[in-house]
Amino acid sequence: MSSHSNAHVAHHFENAEQQRQSAQLGMWIFLVTEVMFFGGLFAAYTIYRSLYPEAWVVGSHLLSIKLGGFNTAVLLASSLTMAMAVHAAQTDKQKASANWIILTMLLGFVFLGVKVVEYAGKIDHHLVPGPHFFVDPMAELAKLEAAGIQVGQHLRHAFEGANPNHIQLFYSLYFAMTGMHAVHMIIGAGIMLWLLVNTRKGVYSSQYFNPVEVSGLYWHFVDIVWIFLFPMLYLIGRH
Amino acid sequence: MSAADTQLAAGDPPKHYLNNGLTIRSWLLSVDHKRIAILYLISLTIFFLLGGAAAALFRMDLVTPEADVLQSETYNKLFTMHGIVMIFFFLVPSIPAVMGNFLVPVMIGAKDVAFPRLNLLSWYVFMTGGLIALGAIIMGGVDTGWTFYTPYSSMYANSHVILAVAGAFIAGFSSIMTGLNFIVTIQKMRAPGLTWFRLPLFIWAMYATSLVVILGTPVVAITLVMIFVERFFGFGIFDPALGGDPVLFQHLFWFYSHPAVYIMILPSMGVVSEIISCFSRRRLYGYTFVAFSSLAIAVIGFFVWGHHMFVSSQSVYAGLVFSFLTFFVAIPTAIKMLNWVMTMYKGSVSFETPMLYAYGFLGLFVIGGLTGLFLSTMATDIHLHDTYFVVAHFHYVMVGGGVMGFLGALHFWWPKIIGKLYPEGWAKFAAIVIFIGFNLTFMPQFQMGYHGMPRRYHTYAEEFQVFHVMSTAGATVLGAGYLIMAAYLFWSLFKGKKASANPWDARGLEWETASPPPTENFLETPKVTQDAYAYDMPSVTCPPGAKSEAERV
Ligand SMILES: [Cu+2]
User: Fold this and answer.
1) Which structural domains are found in chain A, ordered by start?
2) Domains of chain B, first to last
3) CA distance A148 to chain B (A)
4) Which residue among A153, B230, B314, B493 is the one 20 to 30 A from B116 at the CA level?
């Protein structure tokens, strides 16, 4: 047993337990830096939302709640499959673990695919910040009414009072935040690929599964970021 | 001769980390924390020379009130280069990446840091960032100042802002990697018996520094990303035309860049604790207070950033709070000062080179710290803001504190790192030259700042010339001091007398292994049975009564 369990202990660690604890603590600290990293964007979002609430209402209404909601479900499912992959790795079911990793990666791609569709829609509607940005809140309000949506007094005021420039600011933050999140998803997909190759090679076992475990922590973190982004960008402005 | 020495002398030529592989490849791909420290030392020396050369050029131009050799545009680019290079590519990594990398595992009795490959990666990331920033300079430079204030940096500057920002952004990740590595190493890899309150204070300082690094650096990273998307894609996060606020940039920037001052100064404080205790031959007075004051500085340091923004439309009430907290953060610093002085009181103090730098640190950092209080008082800051007074203040803190600590550490641990003694006489001479040169450079800047000389100006009113001439003369002396030091340290690499395991008769695990240490640091994992700084007990490696080697020379 000892020869097997020691094979994966790097020379500078005393034992497998020290190595495992170090890997976990390392990943948690990394996630702390990630919280601070996204924190800068969340701070900018909070400040501008409190300054320009009307623009945020209009901005939210122009996002597709269906696509966003679907993506939320996809990411939640991917967290489940990731957890299953870790569990399978810990219990020496490496074949199952590989399958769960593939599934996680696929769900990640579905999310990114939907995101591409959403971004393309925004490009078509000139909602990408920059010289081509254009939005007419009153025309958008008319579209909502034409679609048979009940437009209350509160909502009408928001659309009337929103400054298009501030809506552009909303979209600057939308693209910065979701873009940064998407970059993390792409890196996550890369990590899944690496885990898959190693799992297939038989690197992991119930004696050594640190990389699967800490990659799982990373994946869950990226999901949680979306769990905050979705209501902040898509939902709050709708009431 | 110490136990470690005899053990090695008995066998074939001693095997240590320096001669374990002599090819370039064995250095560039080494995951040994000690070799990575040397890689950092060499690269930081080059960056220090570049940053110093930029300063030399504009200091020369400032001898006369009118423009001489430089055009104003070049002048702007030079002070920007000086700031970016010295802060992001020298001071921030200096003690952590060189001394910390070398010492943290050795001081806690570990074989390496927790993530050795990440450690090597951090050096490559650092060099990538550094080369990109150098690329920006070579292609024509950046003129925004090291602070990259918006909207100038995001909209108007016609220079290579994106490249410089990318360089600083990438270098930030190397400090995050180092900080993460240190926290995990210190928490999880201490030798048996080495409890938290037996750790050397240098380790406490590195721990506190790493906390600041991992909490602050990501914020400046995302801020630089915002400048990037604004410049490159035309996003409007800081653009007033879209309702964005340029002052938000200052908030986000100083949220990192004030704590960054502590990234540069806390490690020096750790070094000074080690040196003062050793050369006073006394246990450090008030160990727990010094340890916790490092953490207190790290925490409070995150809530004072607004003192950079008293005149930037920030609300007066916010200013009041920031002003109060800035005074408050001076308390843990003063606690450290008190404890260092109390350690020397009734100790048998001596005057070896590292101790000279520690004395220098105490004197200069007191001036730097106290003039900081002038600037954290809102009323006086209105007058002193953006003048040479600020320039003098932060050079007293960063050079008088940060660089003095770095040089003290370099001399104190040089015998351990290189295995050779540096020439003590020359070293003392250089330390005194550096001290005099530094004061001559920056003391007049307090004076002219107080009289209204604004910072970052290429030309100035004639009444300030006498101060500028003094300052340039001082910078020349300072530069000479650095060059003397570089010369004798380089000489000692080849001709220096061989160092024993413990040339200072110091305490701490790093002195219980050979100089230079073997690749695995310790032949067997040490067991710690006593507190740090047990100068009242005989050393494990140096027989009682033996004088330090430097004294015998
Ligand atoms: Cu500050």
Assistant:
1) 13-238 (1.20.120.80)
2) 27-552 (1.20.210.10)
3) 32
4) B493
